[in-house]
Amino acid sequence: MQRRHPIALLATLMFVVSAPAFAWSGFGHQLVGELAERQLSESARAQIADLLRDEPEQTLASVATWPDTVRKQAAWKFTAPFHYVYIQDDACRYDAARDCPDGSCIVAAIDRYGAELRDATLPREQRAQALKFVVHFVGDVHQPLHAGNRTDEGGNEFQVNLDGEGTNLHSVWDYRILHSAQLDLQTYADRLDAQRRRAPGLANGDSAAWAMESCSALAAQAAYPAKPGKLDPSYLVDKRGYVEQRVVQASERLAAMLERALGVGAGP
């Protein structure tokens, strides 16, 4: 086995340690949570704070990464397939019986945990867990490589080289694109919130529609390079605007979903 120079090894270790802080499953999810909470009514925010009263922080951003932290634990391994869906159709048409057998995909998970969150007769702890899953999965389904129609494990098997580092396309979309803006959470959230206020979207559709949007974006946004290999750094800048758009859309749709479940007049 070839030995690596100590400096090169140190750089690699630093990258491995620091990268998750900027992952869609970290930084991106926190952005979605922060933006969504800014759009909620006082009533919905109060109920969220009550549901999360046992947490160190009672905000959507603070719990947005929880499903990723527990998915490898024995008690939560059953949730691993809930983070994605493989749509087995070239035109990105989702079919529940074909693409989500036994409800084991992100589309069904959003609906299932959304129903638990709405049900005020359930124990608070169960609804708090449902809230954390909803926040996370609504973010995931807006990341195109979490809802694609290619047989490469959501781009995990599509190898690329970026800035001299070997990685894969899924990782690029998970964290490299947002990280390339080099902004902290609050600064980035302020910027995207200002964009949203200037051109508010429609919090429309459902979990299946959001998944089909993501799937269609793989072709529409030319997410896949022509072939594996060296990826020009300009790719990050080229795709960042669309990724930011998906973060904003996720936040609007999450806020609307939570408002229906927890806002003024919400019921079981």
Automatic annotation (TrEMBL):
GO terms for molecular function: endonuclease activity; hydrolase activity, acting on ester bonds; metal ion binding; nucleic acid binding. InterPro entries: PLipase_C/P1_nuclease_dom_sf, S1/P1nuclease. Keywords: Disulfide bond, Endonuclease, Glycoprotein, Hydrolase, Metal-binding, Nuclease, Signal. Residues 1-23 form the signal peptide. CDD domains: S1-P1_nuclease. It comes from the Bacteria. One of its GO terms (biological process) is DNA catabolic process. The keyword Cell wall biogenesis/degradation does not apply. This is Endonuclease.
